[in-house]
Each structure stands twice: as C-alpha cells, then as structure tokens.
Write a sequence for this structure.
C-alpha cells in the first residue's frame, strides 16, 4: 500500500522522500561502519599492547645478553692477563733466562717483516727435566709465536731471521704451515737461551 501511495504523491514529495531514504541509508551505513571500526579497534588494542610488551621484553633481554657477553669478554681478558703474568713470574724465577730480552729480540727480528707478517700470540712454556749426569733439574723456556704471514716467502724469511738470532735455538714450525700460498697461519716454536 505504501508503494501505491508513493506513486500517487507529487514529484517534489517523491524527490524529498527519496532524498530522505538515501540520507537514512547513508547515515545508518556510516553508523554501522563507525561501530565496526570502534569494535575492531577495541579488539586490536589488547593484541597491540601484548606485542608492545613482548617487544620491550625482547629488547631488554638482548641488552642483558649483550652486557653479559661484554662482562664475559672482560673476565676472559682478565684471566688471560693473570695467566700471562703467572707465566712471566715463573720465567723470571729462572736464573739464566731473560724473558724481556727474548721479547725484545722477537720484536727486533719481526720489525723488518712487519709488513708481511702479523704476530697474534706469544706464549711461554716452562719445561723441566733432570740431567742424567748431574741429577740437577734443568728448566728450559719454550716460546710459541702464532700469527699470519702474507705468503710462504715472508714466513721463510722471518724464520731465517729468528734462527740467526743468538737468543733462540731450535726454531721450528710444522711443514703443514707452508701448504697455503697466501695468508698463511703459522705457529713457531723456539727455545730461549
């Protein structure tokens, strides 16, 4: 019955009625869309807060791990320094050995080769043995040099220089150190006189 009356209405009233219909339809749709947006926002808020809390805890955990690693590195460096100091003290107790002279000799022998040979580690090792004739304890100091040489020729020249130095005897290194052609990691062993 309503439809019949709409057709009977004059054109101006039908136009006004149509405008009111579309205005109501748009306002209801916008209210529904706004309501859906508000409900969606409220539903997403806990997820956002949870993700933010997880991110903050992950950042805090990473910071804690980084601080722990740094503390471990510092502890490792302190322990290494203590070990080196103990080794130096033991070497200083030996009457016939001059460890600072040995280091000076290594540095002096290394300087001409410093462009092609990089020293990364120097360690002392004490070896005690009993002389069969005198029954005395003889202590020898063995030094180990580790590093990287640019090539075989540079490593050979550095070893020759060390062998010529009167401070050292029995300068040796594994033949396997000569396998590489470039960037050769080496480990030399020598006795300090």
């Amino acid at each position: 019955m309503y439809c019949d009356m709409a057709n009977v209405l004059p054109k101006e009233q039908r136009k006004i009625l149509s405008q009111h219909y579309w205005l109501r339809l748009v306002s209801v749709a916008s209210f529904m869309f706004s309501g859906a947006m508000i409900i969606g926002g409220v539903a997403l808020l806990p997820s956002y807060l949870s993700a933010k809390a997880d991110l903050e805890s992950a950042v805090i955990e990473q910071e804690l791990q980084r601080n722990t690693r740094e503390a471990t590195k510092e502890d490792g460096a302190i322990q290494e320094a203590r070990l080196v100091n103990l080794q130096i003290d033991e070497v200083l107790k030996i009457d016939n050995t001059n460890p600072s002279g040995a280091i000076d000799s290594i540095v002096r022998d290394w300087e001409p080769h410093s462009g092609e040979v990089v020293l990364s580690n120097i360690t002392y090792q004490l070896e005690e043995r009993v002389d069969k004739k005198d029954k005395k304890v003889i202590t020898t100091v063995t030094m180990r040099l580790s590093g990287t040489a640019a090539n075989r020729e540079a490593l050979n020249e550095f070893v020759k220089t060390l062998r010529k130095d009167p401070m050292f005897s029995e300068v040796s290194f594994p033949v396997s150190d000569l396998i590489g052609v470039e960037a050769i990691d080496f480990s030399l062993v020598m006795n300090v006189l």
Q: What stands out?
A: Residues 95-192 form a domain with the Alpha-Beta Plaits fold (CATH 3.30.70.60).
